[in-house]
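Sharing a chain and its predicted structure for anyone who wants a worked example. Both blocks are below, sequence first, C-alpha cells second.
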Amino acid sequence: MAAYFSRPDVGLLGFAKFFKESANEEVEHARKFTEFINKRSGRVVLQHVMLNSETAPMKYESIKDAIDLAIAKEMHVSRLIKDIHLRASQLNDAQAQHFLDDFLMEQVDSTAKLRVIRSRLALDSSATFLLDQELR
C-alpha cells in the first residue's frame, strides 16, 4: 500500500508514510515472534507469502477501499493471534499468553486508528487531502 500511495500518479505521501510505518511495525512483530520462539527452543518455519490481486491490489478504487482492506487484514491477523492465544491457554502456557497479550492490544489500537481514518474520510471529500497532510 505504501508503494501505491507514493507513486507519482497517486501522490498521497502522508498515506504512503502511514502504510510504510505500519509495514515496518509488522516486520518488528515478526522479529519479536522469532526471538520468543527461539528463546523457548522452538523452530521458526518461514513460508512464502502468496500475493494476488485480491490481497495485494496494484490499484485501489478509492482510499476508503484501501483502508477497508487494511482493516480486514488487521482483523484477520487478530483472529490468528486469538487462535494461538486460545491454544496457549489450552496448553496452560502462561508465558505464551502473556507474550500474545501485547500483540492483541496492538491489533485493537491499529484497527481503531484505521477506523478513525475511514470515518474521517467519509465525513468530507476534502478530508483526503487534509488527512494526507496530517499523516506526513
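Comments welcome. The longest helix spans residues 94-123.
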